[in-house]
Write a structure and sequence with these properties.
This is Di- and tricarboxylate transporter. This protein is of the alpha+beta class. It is built from 30 helices and ten strands. Among the domains are: 93 residues, Regulator of K+ conductance, C-terminal domain (Alpha-Beta Plaits), CATH 3.30.70.1450; 77 residues, Alpha-Beta Plaits, CATH 3.30.70. Helix content is 60%, strand content 8%. The chain has a five-stranded antiparallel sheet, with helices on one face. Strands 8-7-9-6-10 form a five-stranded antiparallel sheet.
Length: 640
């Protein structure tokens, strides 16, 4: 579903880009006979860089490889084509040493320190006390708290920490999680526009702005606008947005088995005294079957066993819980000395065992997980984590069959039966988001105050320009490690390397866009269409075009591509270039209309049971409202 919609959107988007860039190809050909050699080279350079932009956009949309790997290929292509891109080797590698890249890496570690202190979890635990089971109060509280936190630490880990809390809050209060999770994601994006540290987009935009117009962002330079935008978003989410968000998931009980409606695929059988399977291992019997049957649990003399079950020898009287289609199961047990136990209804209490620590959990696949794009079999997941696979949910759709060959995507939810040891391993692995109903108690106020103090110190040092933000955040990382809030090994796990590679790869593309005159050319094409409008309207059109682009590709890619174009457009119409930089920056954090444009939207897609169109119905009105409000406020606050 995702790929089909992305292909349609990509064709439309590339068509729009080609409409602006096609004339350059014709012009370059005409230059063969009409202009001097130097002019010819200049136009060919624009054509090459423009083609590279289209190629990168297409690859980001189709994702034949992870986005981070695609981004790493950009510097290579720039150097190979340096005759036209004008990018040297040093410039192509400049993204790795750029202040924005260093700062973003450090911010991920600072965010982990805040999480490890228990501050986010403690705050989440208080929301239910404040709101009870009132949905609108829950939406308001989640939006406010998420926005505040996301304004000073990276918004992606904030959402990762809040998804389990919000889902379990919904389950306990019998509220649809669908009503709460879109506000959670949107609030993290809106909160990220309040300060420089709120999102990697702001940090990258600041560096691009410094390079192009010698005006980096101050820590609180756009806070007044960010707060207004956040308040507008909050009001929208508790009024119009609240009624537009569908109730895709309804918790009718505290049982995940019932909520997933998986009982029809779970059957308990008993091994008879005369079974030909006696003495054989479960792995021997079930491993090479050309049927979709899985043994979830074995019970022998009242004691329950689960994965790894392959080595268990089958004995008379053993009870096996099997996940399979009933018709397939009946064919399998025929003439094998296996009796169905039709009077036994499989429920969550039967599968779970508090004594042995067996528990049914939901695991969300985040955007940067190594499992995205692979099957359960390919990553050897069940053997690696000693877990039993029950079902997989993609948006609203649930799958119960051929699960081991199911290709996982970001946002998918996996229903598992695990042991206590496996649960702890999964909780410590940032490739997963665990949705369990355990209260978080392993925090202390001293750790919380220490972590918040470190982040506050970083903000003060950077905002007062005592030291650069890159050095301030690196100092914060050292402080987090030495105070044992982040373990040394955690530093590497905390960093989202895909984002780092994305920044490192795209920063030199921005240099090529500016150096070759491509930004000026694209600005010319846009102004041919929009030049008849007043500057504030042109500013709004730039905002909206960037927001549309962000819904399809990453927010950081939108900033790199659009800020040089916006600055050139501002110069050509005699407008304030910083106003255009701000418009593009805010628009890059406005991916409300698509679940694929922003990491936090992908994180909530599966847990909320959403459909692709839900984001369009809820997010598009908010984008239109902000496309009017933000350009007007920018023109008032900074002049245009």
């Amino acid at each position: 579903m995702f790929k089909q919609i992305k292909k349609i959107v990509s064709i439309l988007l590339i068509g729009v880009v080609l409409a602006f860039l096609y004339p350059v190809i014709v012009q370059a050909v005409d230059n063969l006979n009409q202009y001097q050699e130097t002019i010819f080279e200049f136009n060919i350079s624009i054509a090459v860089v423009s083609s590279l932009i289209i190629l990168v956009l297409g690859l980001f949309i189709w994702e034949p490889l992870p986005i981070g790997i695609i981004a790493l290929a950009v510097p290579v292509m720039l150097v190979v084509l340096n005759l036209w891109t004008k990018v040297s080797t040093d410039q192509a590698l400049s993204g790795f040493s750029n202040k924005a890249t260093v700062t973003v890496m450090a911010m991920f570690v600072l965010s982990r320190g805040i999480q490890n202190s228990g501050a986010v979890q403690l705050l989440g635990n208080k929301i239910e006390d404040l709101t009870g089971n009132n949905e609108k109060k829950q939406v308001g509280a989640i939006t406010v708290f998420t926005g505040i936190i996301a304004s000073v630490i990276n918004n992606t880990p904030v959402v990762a920490a809040f998804v389990p809390m919000v889902t379990n809050l919904a389950r306990r209060t019998k509220v649809s999680p669908s009503k709460l999770l879109i506000p959670l994601s949107y609030a993290s994006m809106l909160g990220g526009t309040i300060t420089l540290l709120g999102t990697s987009t702001n940090i990258l935009a600041s560096q691009v702005s410094a390079r192009l117009i010698n005006h980096p962002f101050g820590m609180f330079e756009f806070t007044k606008l960010g707060i207004i935008v956040f308040v507008v978003g909050l009001i929208y989410l508790i009024t119009i947005g609240y009624y537009l968000i569908p109730e895709r998931i309804k918790f009718e009980s505290k049982s995940l088995i019932k909520d997933y409606k998986i009982e029809q695929f779970l059957t308990e059988v008993e091994i008879d005294d005369n079974s030909p399977l006696l003495g054989k291992s479960i792995g021997e019997v079930f491993k090479n079957l050309d049927k979709d049957l899985d043994v979830i649990q074995m019970t022998r003399k009242g004691e329950q066993f689960m994965e790894p079950l392959d080595v268990k020898t089958i004995r008379a009287g053993d009870h096996l819980v099997i996940r399979a289609n009933k018709e397939m199961l009946l064919k399998f047990i025929e003439n094998k000395g296996i009796s169905l136990l039709p009077d036994i209804k499989i429920n969550q209490n039967q599968l779970e065992d508090s004594v042995q620590g067996q528990k049914i959990i939901e695991v969300v696949v985040p955007d940067n997980s190594f499992m995205a794009g692979q099957t359960i079999n390919e990553v050897n997941f069940l053997e690696r984590y000693d877990a039993s696979l029950l079902a997989i949910k993609h948006g609203e759709k649930r799958s119960y069959e051929n699960l081991k060959d199911f290709t996982l995507r970001a946002g998918d939810v996996i229903l598992l039966l695990v042991t206590e040891a496996t649960l702890k391993r999964l909780e410590n692995n940032k490739n997963f988001i665990i949705e369990d109903d355990l209260e978080t108690t392993d925090y202390s106020f001293s750790k919380i105050f220490l972590a918040l103090g470190i982040v506050a110190t970083v903000i003060i040092l950077a905002s007062m320009k005592i030291i650069s933000i890159a050095i301030a955040t690196l100092g914060g990382v050292i402080a987090m490690v030495t105070s044992n809030l982040v373990k040394p090994k955690e530093v590497y796990d905390a960093i989202n390397w895909e984002v780092v590679f994305l920044l490192a790869g795209l920063i030199p593309l921005g240099v090529a866009i500016e150096q070759t005159g491509t930004a000026q050319f694209i600005a010319n094409q846009l102004l041919k269409v929009t030049g008849i409008f007043p500057p504030v309207v042109i500013l709004g059109l730039f905002y909206y075009f960037t927001a549309l682009l962000t819904n399809v590709i990453s927010n950081n890619a939108s900033v790199v591509l659009m800020i040089p174009v916006a600055v050139n457009a501002a110069h050509q119409i005699g407008a304030n270039p910083f106003a255009f930089v701000l418009a593009v920056t805010f628009a890059a954090s406005a991916a409300f209309s698509s679940p694929v444009g922003y990491q936090t939207n992908l994180m909530i897609y599966g847990p909320g049971g959403y459909k692709f169109r839900d984001f369009m119905f809820v997010g598009a009105p908010l984008e239109i409202i902000l496309a009017v409000i933000i350009p007007v406020l920018i023109s008032i606050f900074w002049g245009i």
